[in-house]
Amino acid sequence: MSFNGFPFSFIVMSDNHMTANDKDEKNINNKNLKNAIVENQKTNPVNWIVSCGDLMDRAKDHEDEKFNDLWWPDFEAYKHRHGGTPLLLEGLGNHDTEFQNGSKADYYKKFLLKHNEERENQIRRREDGFPTEFFKDYTKDSGKLHYYWRYTVDEGKFHFFMLNKFPGKGHGEPLWNENVRRRTDPDNSLPFLIDTLKKIPHDEPVFLFHHYGFRFQNVDNTLDDHWTAKQREEYVKAIADHKVVCIFYGHWHTLFYEKYNFTLCSIENGVGISRTVPLNTICAGLAASGIAVHCTVSKSGKSEFKYMMDIIQWNADANGKSTHDIREFVNGVHTQNPVGRIYF
């Protein structure tokens, strides 16, 4: 495995839920997971570590500093660019803001804005052969939290988006009452995704990361408490014609794979048309329990597919890590069907 070449690999985690108490089991499990990644770099280096949100447990008592103190020193942008360590790419979830309001909630976004600034400064858009490029969101009226990175090697270009809580337009709408509006605020992430996708050829692989997924607690309708059916439909329309390899998300505190078939309906020349958009999705586990997903992208060896992505579950504890198959979620039920590879 080559840090600057192909094949390449990355780790996806979610729901770190770090607290102000260093002895909290969630913090200890985060530390075990981080140590396992550091140890893994010696033999099987990964390029990036992505967290899909809920970095903090209650967004209080400077929990953001606990996350920074544990994760940032080992994987800061400068070390990635110059030292060959993984680049940490984190996003925000509902726990990172919803338990505060007004300017207090915005305070917990500032550390992500600061990290994005450092990532962009350290990993510039250079023509010096370094394969990872980083781009911040400059879309009008966005929270500037979202970002995109591109990995370019001889085998092709691969595109990655962090969309934070969920992909949506504007700044949310109150689903219950005005006091919980922040729970639904996507910080205008969808226009950033749409504008950037316009510059990407439709046959180049795209990977998407955000906190809310298409399913929660076995049924679809509870999603409307998180992001609306209209918002989900707008998202799928935006990505339907692109080569989306996988959507990674969190929030559910579990780990599974699901082939989600989303139906888009439209009217053309007075005739109703329906289209099914199949999407590979992975709920990326619970970092607060030391669980994450390890992904490796390589050539497929099949004539009908150019690439493949191998996926495996990591469980980390004080003794290192163990690996397990990722199981499939079908029709609202966790199965024992292993899913170890996605072709694209």
Summarize the structure.
With 344 residues, this protein is α/β, with parallel strands linked by helices.
Task: List key phrases describing it.
344 residues; seven-stranded mixed β-sheet; 6 helices; globular; alpha/beta; Purple Acid Phosphatase, chain A, domain 2; 16 strands
Contiguous runs where pLDDT drops below 50 for at least 5 residues: 177-182
Could you report the average pLDDT, rounded to the nearest whole number?
Answer: 89
CATH class: Alpha Beta
Radius of gyration: 19 Å
CATH topology: Purple Acid Phosphatase, chain A, domain 2
Order of helices and strands: EHEHHEHEEEHEHEEEEEEEEE
What is the CATH architecture assignment?
Answer: 4-Layer Sandwich
User: What structural category characterises the helix and strand content?
Assistant: alpha/beta
Give the topology:
Layout: E1 8-13, H1 25-40, E2 48-51, H2 63-75, H3 77-83, E3 87-90, H4 103-122, E4 132-136, E5 147-153, E6 156-162, H5 189-197, E7 205-209, H6 229-239, E8 243-249, E9 255-268, E10 271-284, E11 291-302, E12 305-317, E13 320-324, E14 327-330, E15 333-338, E16 341-343
Parallel strand pairs: 1-2, 2-3, 6-7, 7-8, 8-10
Antiparallel strand pairs: 1-11, 4-5, 5-6, 9-10, 11-12, 12-13, 12-16, 14-15
Helix pairs in contact: 5-6
